Amino acid sequence: MNNRPIGVFDSGLGGLTVLKEIMKITPNENIVYFGDTARVPYGPRSKETIIKYTFQAIDFLISKNVKAIVIACNTATARALKEANEKYDIPILGVIEAGARTAVYTTKNKVVGIIGTDGTIRSKAYNAEISKLDPEIKIVDKSCPLFVPIVEEGWANTDIASLTAKRYLDDLMKEGIDSLVLGCTHYPLLKKTIGEIVGEKVTLVNPAKETAKDLKRILDENDMLRGDIGEEPKYEYYVSDIPEKFAAIAEEFLKKEIDDIKNVRI
Amino acid sequence: MNNRPIGVFDSGLGGLTVLKEIMKITPNENIVYFGDTARVPYGPRSKETIIKYTFQAIDFLISKNVKAIVIACNTATARALKEANEKYDIPILGVIEAGARTAVYTTKNKVVGIIGTDGTIRSKAYNAEISKLDPEIKIVDKSCPLFVPIVEEGWANTDIASLTAKRYLDDLMKEGIDSLVLGCTHYPLLKKTIGEIVGEKVTLVNPAKETAKDLKRILDENDMLRGDIGEEPKYEYYVSDIPEKFAAIAEEFLKKEIDDIKNVRI
Questions:
Q1: I need a labelling partner for A221 at 20 to 30 A (CA). Which of A188, B9, B15, B55 fits?
Q2: B96-207 matches B6-94+209-263 in CATH topology
Q3: What residue spans of chain B are helical by DSSP H?
Q4: Type and span of the H or E element at A248
């Protein structure tokens, strides 16, 4: 048994969907979440800056004695995961690899859709990972810049969300995708709306869920799981700035009440 | 007659709506536009960073021999206009003062609405400017984070835009506003959609237009207008990064073809 917490890091709030899956799949683990809300979004920043911010976040989590870290942010994973694994000794996972691998498993007709923010789509990180595993897969990608603000307004299940999803996904449907990677941590909150647009024949791949499964496997293999010791796990939340709507959005993401949010300067 | 160009600066593309009004109101002027597209958006950045970026942009425009500068960006105006005017000798105008002054003139019932990005609304810059002119005016403000991506997708006149505007503006209408400041440079592109929601009794105040009028007056008073010399004015566009959709969006903003876009490192 290993009491040390898991560290989860995101540029803001989106990583809470990953946190939620980790809580579900490894319900006994203590967790420290850090959201770099003062410097969100990372998308438009340079690779050097993103590496610097990511290392600062990792240093902060290590100061909290974490045993493993999940970079629950597509941009930081695409730009800084490799460098982080070269620098640090504890296991550090990103969200892209698990999502890509799952899409390769689920697709039958070898036509996979990827949606994400402008930055993630331009980075082609999912495309590269999928093509490495199966170069025959045809990838259709599309950036969906309205989805994040729609989720953050709490409008995920409105007519605005439906109409927007229809507009974004029409082209992907015409290409005949049978799997769709939700390549942004906010998007699992749109799962119901997106599912209604693409229909049951398209499998939605949630990288958050797959990453949580990977994490559990790695902890298990290294004998690092906390196990059920009859004591509730502890969840701590740190943010570099408390946005106005933080609590409301966070509770929408996690579907549970959040207390113990601390402000930290890194 | 003064052949030197006017400099127009924005963090990205939004300032093109201001540029459009300047072209209309002073059609003989040569203009140099600089969009800091590599570092957009300024909204989440610190005051110090925004001042640094703004000074860099001004230095660049001065190197192009401009006779006056318009900071066509609400964030940069709110955070750096005062500092810029303390540092530089040429006339430098922002977009907020003219918009606020016009709202004070147009309102009859003294209830004014302000819409803008999260950053602009949180800065309370329009509120402060309006209250300085008439402390009796009641201000109802609302951030509308979906409007910028809607405009940038080219969706300004869709059902998505209408439904979104209705949701954002309902509360302001209930408060009985008779004037509405479009406090973000992207919003004039939503004028038709917003106008349909708020109806004819609400005056839409476009700070871009008012700023262009101020610029003309200042140039006139200082004997700096170019005048009609029977020679087409020259328009030059510089950006710090060429975004994928730059040309398409820019032509949508300006309603004219754009050539001569140069990339510049500042």
A1: A188
A2: yes
A3: 16-25, 47-63, 74-87, 96-106, 118-123, 125-133, 147-152, 159-174, 191-198, 207-221, 246-254
A4: helix A246-254
- For A33, A85, A187, the CA distances from A10, given in Å and listed in that order, are 8, 17, 15
Question: Which of B163, B168, B171 is the best residue to mutate to test the A interface, defined by the most A CB atoms within 10 Å of its own CB?
Answer: B163
Nearest to B145 among A153, A164, A167 (CB): A153
Distance of alpha carbon B109 from alpha carbon A31, whole angstroms: 54
Residues A150 and A212: their CA atoms lie apart, in Å, by: 25
Interatomic CA distance for residues B109 and B107, integer angstroms: 6
Residue B73 annotated in active site: yes
Architecture of domain A6-94+209-263: 3-Layer(aba) Sandwich (3.40)
Interface predicted TM-score of the whole assembly (ipTM), two decimals: 0.85
Q: Among this protein's residues, is B184 annotated catalytic?
A: yes
CATH classification code of B96-207: 3.40.50.1860
- Cβ burial B207-218 (10 Å sphere, 16+ → b, else e): bbbbbbebbeee
Lookup: tokens for A229: 């010791």
Of the listed B66, B69, B184, B212, which one is catalytic? Answer: B184
Domain boundaries of chain B, sorted by first residue? 6-94+209-263, 96-207
Cα-only R_g, chain A: 18
Whether residue A58 contacts residue A88, with contact meaning beta carbons closer than 8 Å, is answered with yes
Q: Mapping DSSP to helix (H, G, I), strand (E, B) and coil, where does residue B255 land?
A: coil
pLDDT in tens, B90-140: 999 999 999 999 999 999 999 999 999 888 898 899 999 999 999 999 999
The length of chain A, given as a count of residues: 266
List the beta strands (DSSP E) in A106-251.
Answer: 111-116, 138-143, 179-182, 203-205, 235-239
* DSSP code, position A117: -
Instruction: Check the CA dihedral B215-B221-B222-B224 and report its sign.
Output: positive
Contact criterion met (CB below 8 Å) for A187 and A149: no
Short-list A80, A82, A36, CA closest to A57? A36
B189 strand-pairing partners: none
What values do phi and psi take at A239, rounded to 5?
-135, 150
What residues of A are in the B interface, CB distance below 8 Å? 39-41, 44, 122, 145-146, 149-150, 152-153, 155, 158-160, 163-164, 167, 244
Give me the tens of pLDDT residue by residue for chain A, a chain 266 residues long: 689 999 999 998 899 999 999 999 999 999 999 999 888 888 777 788 899 999 999 999 999 999 999 999 999 999 999 999 999 999 999 999 999 999 999 999 999 999 998 888 988 999 999 999 999 999 999 999 999 999 989 999 999 999 999 999 999 999 999 999 999 999 999 999 999 999 999 999 999 999 999 999 999 999 999 988 888 999 999 998 876 667 778 888 888 888 778 888 87
For helices A74-87 and A96-106, give the axis angle rounded to 10 degrees.
Answer: 120
